[in-house]
Structure formats: structure tokens, C-alpha cells
Design goal:
Elements lengths: L8 E4 L5 H12 L3 E5 L13 H12 L4 E4 L6 H15 L4 E4 L14 H29 L2 E6 L2 H4 L6 H21 L4 E8 L12 H6 L2 H8 L12 E5 L2 E5 L16 H6 L1 H5 L10 H32 L1
């Protein structure tokens, strides 16, 4: 099986360098027409330049592909709308959105300013929201869409000094989980990529010999499986250094306590059963959790009712 993007139009945000650049080049190589988006700022989000994105466009064109550059700040919805409109004017559709743009403002929470926290949230969370919102109706109307969110182990598992980044990277998973449900009937599939790569975002966070192992191209190989015709849905793919793994949130089966036993002491007393993973499951919507707990309560009351009727029958017989 060959994964192809012939006839598809893709928008890749933050595509001037690193992972985004790798994603854009790979999509173009496999036939996609690509919008190379990059504000051209520094790693912390300061400054702007179109040089990097235009260089990626030139490289795609030199290899026989089609691409345009756009310097939209993903945190600005008006600029994002203009970017999407330019893609529509040129190619008439948008099939794929790779939400990759991001910045870092790392500090421990005690030392971090609220401005730095908010800026990272704006770029990663609202950037993903803005870009997704701008293409959502287009994808619904054409009954086809593939969206990739970029999450991180910093969000799923935590990383010292990245409370803002970690919070943002978990937020995009919450966005994905709901959009999967809302987009299903229109063949819109949303997945998430959790990359580990040696880019300018991480260049001073790891030794050089390790960074060389963590090539952006290794991550992109995984990303391409999340946005083709046969892409999964609601899948979190972790990728780095040639390794690929799935990540998923599971919930234990849990317990039920009747009203007269619902106290913190009893919850703690049943902690082993609360945390027992024997029958854990990956829930596919928030309502499934409610259904599970209500089901446990109904089963308990049904048992109590049957038990009471049985005892009553035994008393009558005696």
C-alpha cells in the first residue's frame, strides 16, 4: 500500500522550520498542494519574517510540486481566514490541516509570568482552534477532512518548567475528542501527533548526539499515517527517533456506593477497587462515563429490589 496525497490540498502551520518544514515537504513529495504557513518568529514567538516559508515553497516547486506561503499568525483568526481563503482561491478546496505551529516560554510555574502562560496558550490552543474553525465548514461541505493536532508528552505526562506548554498540549486533545464526534458524519477525521524531535524548539534542551537521532523526518513518517484517506480517527501517535507508539486515556471500571455510604472515608477505603485496572476501558465520549455510573447505580437498585422481593417471598412461605 502506498500512501498518496494526489489531488489533496494541505495547510501546514509553523512550516518554515523543523517539524512543520518536514511535514510540508513530505506532503508535497507525495502529491499534495501545500500552504506553507509560518509567521517567521523566533522560538519564543517574537519577531516575524517570510524568508523561511518562502524557502520551503521554492524547494517544493523545484521538486515539481505546488505550494504557496502565508505568514498568518495562527493566534489571529482574521489572518488565518485570509490564509484559508487564498488556498480556496487558488485550489478550490482544503483537505488536510496540520496544526503544528508553536512557541516555547519555559520557566517554572513560580517564575512564569501570566503573560507568558497566556501567549503559549494562545498560539497552541487558539491557534489550533482558529485554523480548525477556518476550514471546518469547507471540510463539512466537501464531506472530507483530515486534521492533525500536535500534542506532547509534556502535556500527557508532565515536564518541569512547561506548565503553559503542557496545559496547551492537553487542551488540543480535548478539542480533538469533541471534534471527532461532531465531524464523523461528514468524514472529518481528527488525530493527534505527540512528537519527539531535535528542532530549534528543543535544540538547547538535549545533547547534540541525541538530537541527531531525533530527526523531524522520523516524526513526519508517522504524521503522514494520520491524514490520508485511510487515516484512523481519534488516535494519538507518539513518534520519535524511529519509534512509534499509541497513547490513550483509560478509565477503571470503578465502584458504586449507595447514598448512605457516599463519604470520602468509604471512597478511600475502596481505593483498591477504584484503581483496579482489570476491566479498564478507553471511553469514546463523556456520556459513556455517565452511562457507566448510572448503570452501576441501576444494577445495585435492581439487585436490592430483587433481594427484597426474595426475602418477602421467603417470609410468606414460612
Amino acid at each position: 500500500m502506498t500512501i498518496s496525497f494526489e489531488g489533496k490540498v494541505a495547510i501546514v502551520t509553523g512550516a518554515g522550520n523543523g517539524l512543520g518544514r518536514s511535514h510540508a515537504l513530505a506532503l508535497a513529495k507525495r502529491g499534495a498542494k501545500v500552504v506553507v504557513n509560518d509567521l517567521g518568529g523566533a522560538r519564543d514567538g517574537s519577531g516575524m519574517s517570510s524568508e523561511a516559508s518562502q524557502a520551503v515553497v521554492r524547494l517544493i516547486e523545484e521538486n515539481g510540486g505546488e505550494a504557496i506561503s502565508h505568514g498568518a499568525n495562527v493566534a489571529n483568526f482574521i489572518e488565518v481566514q485570509d490564509m484559508v481563503q487564498q488556498a480556496m482561491d487558488k485550489w478550490g478546496r482544503v483537505d488536510i490541516l496540520i496544526n503544528n505551529a508553536g512557541i516555547l516560554r519555559d520557566k517554572s510555574f513560580a517564575k512564569m509570568s501570566l503573560d507568558d502562560f497566556k501567549l503559549v496558550m494562545d498560539v497552541h490552543v487558539m491557534g489550533s482552534v482558529n485554523c480548525t474553525k477556518a476550514v471546518w465548514d469547507i471540510m463539512r461541505d466537501q464531506n472530507y477532512g483530515r486534521i492533525v493536532m500536535t500534542t506532547s508528552s509534556s502535556g500527557m505526562y508532565g515536564n518541569f518548567g512547561q506548565s503553559n506548554y503542557g496545559a496547551a498540549k492537553m487542551a488540543v486533545l480535548g478539542l480533538m475528542n469533541t471534534l471527532v464526534l461532531e465531524g464523523a458524519k461528514n468524514n472529518i477525521r481528527i488525530n493527534a501527533l505527540a512528537p519527539t524531535a531535535g528542532t530549534r524548539m528543543t535544540e538547547d534542551l538535549m545533547p547534540q548526539n541525541i538530537a541527531k537521532m531525533l530527526s523531524p523526518e522520523a516524526v513526519t513518517a508517522g504524521m503522514l499515517t494520520l491524514c490520508d484517506d485511510d487515516a484512523p480517527n481519534r488516535f494519538i501517535l507518539s513518534a520519535g527517533a524511529g519509534g512509534y507508539a499509541s497513547a490513550e486515556m483509560f478509565e477503571s471500571d470503578g465502584i458504586f456506593l449507595p447514598g448512605n455510604e457516599q463519604s470520602p472515608e468509604n471512597v478511600r477505603a475502596h481505593w483498591h477497587d477504584v484503581t483496579n485496572t482489570d476491566n479498564q476501558a478507553a471511553l469514546k465520549s463523556g456520556v459513556q462515563q455517565s452511562e457507566k455510573f448510572v448503570g452501576k447505580a441501576m444494577a445495585y437498585f435492581k439487585y436490592q429490589q430483587e433481594k427484597s422481593q426474595q426475602e418477602k417471598s421467603q417470609q410468606e412461605e414460612s
